[in-house]
Amino acid sequence: MIAELRAVAACRAYLCSQCDDGGMSGLFTAFLIALVAAAQTGEPSGPSFEVVSIRQVPPNAPSILRSQDFTPVLPGGQYVDSRVSLFFMIAYAYGVTNPSQQLVGLPGWAKERSYSVAAKAGPDYSADTPAANDKQVRLMMRKMLADRFQLRLHTEIRRERILNLQVAKGGFRIPAVDPPVPPAKEGLVSAAVGDSGGRMIGKKSTTAGMPGLSSSFCNVL
After folding, report:
1. Given 117, 148, 179, which residue is the final one in a domain?
2. Preceding amide of 183 cis, omega within 30
3. What is the reported pLDDT for 213?
4. How many CB atoms lie within 10 A of CB 218?
5. Phi then psi dihedrals of residue 147, to 5 deg
6. How confident is the model at residue 54 (pLDDT cuts 50, 70, 90)?
7. CA–CA separation, 53 and 71 (whole Å)
8. Does 200 fall in a domain?
9. Are residues 180 and 110 in the same domain?
10. What's the predicted TM-score (pTM) here?
11. With the CA atoms of 46, 49, 53 and 59 taken in that order, what torsion angle do they form, in degrees rounded to the nearest 10?
12. Is 36 helix (H, G, I), strand (E, B) or coil?
């Protein structure tokens, strides 16, 4: 991996994910700046859940185990999760792929407190495909977060250090294996990180999961 900092034109954009750098070459990182406030103005418009239940999970509640393919999004416009933080609800609702680096401005309890959430759309809800259902649930989550947590946010574009993942001299040394045979699924790429370094772990995984996970090592490189 090669860490590099490129000089780019300074720019800021609200409610967008791209900016014009005036033709200069550079890489930008989008940051979602979140604020939990008491004001009730500026709520996002769009579809909303008909029924919502949010309960705080006690700090001493027993841990839970989840399967690799767990998703809180269910058919029919439902979002059901028995243990989720506000931090991860925001990340899902707004499609933040690297929330630990890109979602900032929240109070500490947004990560520390867990909630049991069950939300469902009304009888007139319609989504033709799983992808359409997911998209609608994300929009309804945004409205729910604004209503229940008084969430306000905007997007900024900032200049940041990037990691450029390249194949080392000598070629790719990760051994290839046969792909999983259905109903088996592709394995996830996970990380084991310590105080002085870390390593990636994958079983029947593809390289597609490696770049995003690499950000987990930013603080130890």
Report:
1. 148
2. yes
3. 63
4. 16
5. -70, -45
6. very high
7. 18
8. yes
9. no
10. 0.66
11. -50
12. strand
